[in-house]
Amino acid sequence: MYPVVLGSPPVAPPVPVRQWQGMSITWTGSDGSVWDLTDPDGGVVLVRDGVEGLHFPRIEKHTTRSRAFPGHRLRGWQTNARDVLWKVYIWADGTNAWLDRITRFFATIHPENEGIWSVQVGDRPARTLRLTGVFDEPHSYDRDPTLRGWQVYSIALEAAQPYWQGERVRRGPWESPTPVGFIPEGGGPEFGISSSANFATAAIPNLGDVDAYGIWWVRDALSQIELGVGDTLIRPTFDLIEGQMLRIDTDPRNPTAQLGPAVDDTDDFVGDDVTRQLGLQDYARIPPGASVPLHVAAVGAGAVMFDLTPLHFRAF
Fold first, then answer.
1. Using one digit for the tens of pLDDT, what is the confidence trace for 121-153?
2. d(CA 219, CA 236)
């Protein structure tokens, strides 16, 4: 007689219980799709154990030592790119459904195009981190996942800009005062007076953990434009006409200026690169915990706004 071994096909584990009770976690992929990583019914769940990237980033301290004193002297520090590690449980009812789900989810991760990891805790606004795929994590299949309809994957990602972004703070829009008629009605042609004096003064706080740099928005007909953070002024070398919008990003990682058609929602703005036309400018940082005065001066009927996104060490 030959030995007979009886066995049953592997049974998929139950759908994982909700891993995160006190927070909302979503992933907006590089393809624009949105995934709730805390909802077991969605088929892709971020496993709680082993997640990396929510806490402090790695920093590198620059120091010098001397025989004249113990220890060392701190000369500065720099934050490295943030390493992120996920473990995701992907499941579906049936082979084809599972294949479709992993295909759609893995299509959201790209080595160059960024996705957005969002974490919201309690009543605080969500914080976000922009990620790209690293693709250096090994994976081995101990069983055929297409038969059991589930698998746990380790996914390595990276945040080139390592800080968690907080809720945007916006000041403005500011507009010049309405021109006052210079000649009484009926007494001849109407003229108006537009002053080039400041038509906006305000302050903006930085609620983050590190220095932040803002974005200026200028729209419609304006000339003799001055945009200031503290004592540092930006003076565009060209005027705007009605229907145009100028976006000036002062982040030293990629200082840029774009000019295009004006839009009501700045998130929809698309413009041409006019960084070279803007000329050489000085851009001011806004230190953490500080509230810095803003200065706006221009001539015309347009408007100006200023955005600041605070940067945080941690997701919460």
1. 999 999 999 999 999 878 878 778 887 788 999
2. 13
Q: Pairing relation of β-strands 291-300 and 222-229?
A: antiparallel
Enclosing H/E stretch for 129: strand 127-133
* Residue in this structure with the two tokens 């000339």, named with its chain if needed: 223
pLDDT at position 66 is 81
At a CB cut-off of 8 Å and minimum separation 6, what does 53 contact? 82, 83, 84, 85, 117, 129, 157, 159, 315
Which of 22, 85, 82, 23 lies closest to 50 in space, CA to CA?
85
What is the rounded average pLDDT of the residues 278-306?
90
Q: Which residues contact 45 (CB under 8 A, 6 or more apart)?
A: 16, 19, 37, 38, 39, 88, 89
Nearest 5°: CA angle at 210, between 209 and 212? Answer: 120
User: How far is residue 167 from each of residues 118, 119, 120, 308, measured CA to CA in Å?
Assistant: 11, 12, 11, 9
Helix (H) or strand (E) holding 148: helix 145-148
Q: Which tokens sit at 179?
A: 């021109």
